Amino acid sequence: MAAIGVHFGYTCACVAIFKDGRADVIANDAGDRVTPSVVAYRDTEQFVGIAAKQGRVRNATNTVVKVKQLLGRTAGDPETKAHIAESKCPVVCKGEKLYYDISAGEHNKLVTPDAVAKLVLEKMRETAQSALASDVTDAVITVPFEFTQAQKTALREAAEAAGFNVLRLIHEPSAALLAYNIGQEFPSGKSHVLVYKLGGTSLSVTALQVNGGMFRVLDTLTDHSVGGDSFTDALAQHLAAEFKRSYKQDVSCNTRAMMKLMNGADLAKHSLSSLNSANCFVDSLHDGIDFDCNISRARFEVLCSSLFNKSIQPIKALLETVGLSSGDINKVVLCGGSARIPRLQQLIREMFPDVEQLCSTPPDEVIALGAALQAGLLAGKEGPSPDDESVGVDACATDILVKELDESGAEVFNVLLPAGTPLPARRQHTLLGRGQLSSLCLELYQRVTQQPQKLARIVLRDLEPKEDNHDINTVLTMKRDGSLHVSCVDESSGRSEAITIAVAS
């Protein structure tokens, strides 16, 4: 039975299929194996992918990029505010819901981030089905490790609206390990693998432990201040300076001209991953002037030297956090389009001189391949038997906390399930309440940023007043699929309440 694996990234998306016992990445109708996660609106039409990206210069206010940043987020989220400040397409908030304000056509219309994501995922489905020549919809979708429950749910719903039957959501580092069949080589004994992902808008580094064919996440670090776009921007700024030097005209404050330079710089950056030099040509950059500039790989590396250093620092911080040295790492897996950059690969190789660096599969395709292999395993019997296949042991992505009052009456948050806890996990906690109270409220939170976000609320009512404190026995159980079950029992009366928060794995 065939199945589909999808990696829906912040800037690009990639789809792979599992068929006849193997996984392959599928090229889109433009012949590209990776599709920009860009959607453009014009009158009554929508364009997805490279056509939308290339037309953004003339249609910026109706072109949505990096929509994944808004999926499942609230208006007050810092990442939401950063996206709104950067987006050329206006974002508005109505009734606590976020919308893109699209002005194409006769009337303005409001489009949700979920609807935009649906169009990108529909493109992935159509691309896969064209290769399979069938209506296969079974799919595994990948998510970043730090995705919250709300973000996972939003992505799953968008995928289902796009026509997918979502078999499972799996974390991107797990998919990268599956793509390289890691877990089979170490039937016994522990080993450690570092997954380094440099995508378009962020950098994430994850340490995993492989033990007897099983692997679990030790910890992960994500930096949203550096990504492939940072390198493109640095190169575009250099090109703007070269244009000013040659033609005595400053285009750095001209939005349209800089978008043209960003497109040219992006193409040049990709070329420099395989060539020693690249030519950047921009037609009619400013005042009808065509701009042509040659960039060497050495010059690019000098321009981005500070970014390279910034891209390496999280590795050292992560190893220190998990208590490992570079000598404890057995393999390094590279993924994300910008992990193709030769200088970056060299710096990582210097950090791990005796460690195998896995980058034979194109880094921007490896996650989709891993997802397809997992989809093949779940959808049918063509893949390896479950007894032989490595299994990813997921971990709690965020801290799960309970809000309580201390002795002074001040609100405090106590961590019940720390981020990185291997799943399934079970925690027991006793909630104390004054005896004269007839009801008690338990509030659970998850810590995504500094400010915890409310996750669930359970109220125990009709408690009998007593002289001593109420002792509420609370049990939290988080399953492998990420769902959280919470039960509360008043030990004196036996009165109980329970709630299940269903989330994607």
List the helices and strands and how they pair.
Blueprint: E1 3-8, E2 12-19, E3 22-25, E4 35-36, E5 38-42, E6 45-48, H1 50-54, E7 63-65, H2 78-86, E8 91-94, E9 97-102, E10 109-111, H3 113-132, E11 138-143, H4 149-161, E12 165-171, H5 172-179, E13 190-198, E14 203-211, E15 214-223, H6 228-247, H7 255-271, E16 277-286, E17 289-296, H8 297-303, H9 305-322, E18 331-335, H10 342-351, E19 356-358, H11 366-379, E20 391-393, E21 399-405, E22 411-417, E23 425-433, E24 440-447, E25 453-460, E26 470-478, E27 484-490, E28 496-501
Parallel strand pairs: 1-11, 11-12, 13-18, 15-20, 18-19
Antiparallel strand pairs: 1-2, 2-3, 2-4, 5-6, 5-7, 8-9, 9-10, 13-14, 14-15, 16-17, 21-22, 21-24, 23-26, 24-25, 26-27, 27-28
Write up this protein.
With 505 residues, the protein is an alpha+beta fold. The chain folds into four domains: 3-173 and 368-393, 2-Layer Sandwich (Nucleotidyltransferase, domain 5), CATH 3.30.420; 185-224 and 308-362, Nucleotidyltransferase, domain 5 (2-Layer Sandwich), CATH 3.30.420.40; 228-305, Actin, Chain A, domain 4, CATH 3.90.640.10; 399-501, Substrate Binding Domain Of DNAk, Chain A, domain 1. Helix content is 28%, strand content 35%. It contains eleven helices and 28 strands. The chain has helices at residues 50-54, 78-86, 113-132, 149-161, 172-179, 228-247, 255-271, 297-303, 305-322, 342-351, 366-379; strands spanning 3-8, 12-19, 22-25, 35-36, 38-42, 45-48, 63-65, 91-94, 97-102, 109-111, 138-143, 165-171, 190-198, 203-211, 214-223, 277-286, 289-296, 331-335, 356-358, 391-393, 399-405, 411-417, 425-433, 440-447, 453-460, 470-478, 484-490, 496-501. The strands form seven sheets. Strands 1, 2, 3, 4, 11 and 12 form a six-stranded mixed β-sheet that branches. Strands 19-18-13-14-15-20 form a six-stranded mixed β-sheet. A hairpin with a 5-residue loop joins strand 21 (399-405) and strand 22. Residues 381-393 have low confidence and may be disordered.
